[in-house]
Amino acid sequence: MSDAPHEEHGNNARTLNWLRAGVLGANDGIISTAGLVIGVAAATTDRTAIFTAGMAGLVAGAMSMAVGEYVSVSTQRDSEKAQLALEKRELAEMPEQELVELAQIYEGKGLEPELAQEVAVALTERDALAAHADAELGIDPDELTNPWHAAWASLIAFTLGALLPLLAIVLPPESWRVGVTGVSVLLALLLTGWISSGLGRSPRGPAIVRNVLGGFIAMVVTYGIGALVGTQI
Ligand SMILES: [Zn+2]
């Protein structure tokens, strides 16, 4: 794998962001549902009760992720649209100052004044708004994130992740439930930690350890609470 910086631009960077968000959503689904079903399984052996709790947790978690994502992406998109509208107005009302401003940005990035001016003129002729949006705001006006896409993506990712502990707790015989769920969840977290650290190009070892340990703690804590509540009530 080469780590040429240009690979991170444009569609590639967008795809990477989506993948990263998907893996994180699945990770959320795995950990929260695992904690839930293991907690309930510590309190009761009733398969229907465990399944009902896990299913409710899956649906609630997926909806909550989707709503949260929809709200946050919509807000970001509104703010980006407002910034673009302002930029558009400035370009229409004072094109000369805007050209100077753009040239100054490229000068600030280290270009000689003459070259910065040349670049600013060329980019302005090609697509002034895109040039300003990129240099000043870091936005691509043609590629604003769609809030519905983001919402569906996190709903699906969370659901896929949550299905693993849900199936692992209800399918095996009673005495195997918690063990099978614990082991399969830790293996899945090892996998999501490995994938997400690869996508983020961060060192793999620490990312995997954090992820697996986090899930392990979540399961131990909810198991403890479930066992405590289950014997008290
Ligand atoms: Zn501008």
Mind sketching the topology for me?
Elements: H1 10-43, H2 47-93, H3 95-108, H4 113-137, H5 147-170, H6 177-200, H7 204-232
Bound molecules: zinc ion (ZN).
Short description:
The chain has 233 residues and is mainly alpha-helical. The chain has helices at residues 10-43, 47-93, 95-108, 113-137, 147-170, 177-200, 204-232. The chain is 85% helix and 0% strand.
**Mean pLDDT score:** 90
Distance between the termini: 56 Å
One letter per element, helices H and strands E, the order comes to: HHHHHHH
Number of strands: 0
User: What hetero molecules are in the model?
Assistant: zinc ion
Shape, per Cα inertia axes: elongated
**Unreliable residue runs:** 1-8
Specify the helix fraction band: over 70%
Structural class of the secondary structure composition?
mainly alpha
Estimated radius of gyration: 24 Å
Number of helices: 7
Strand content: under 5%
Largest sheet: none
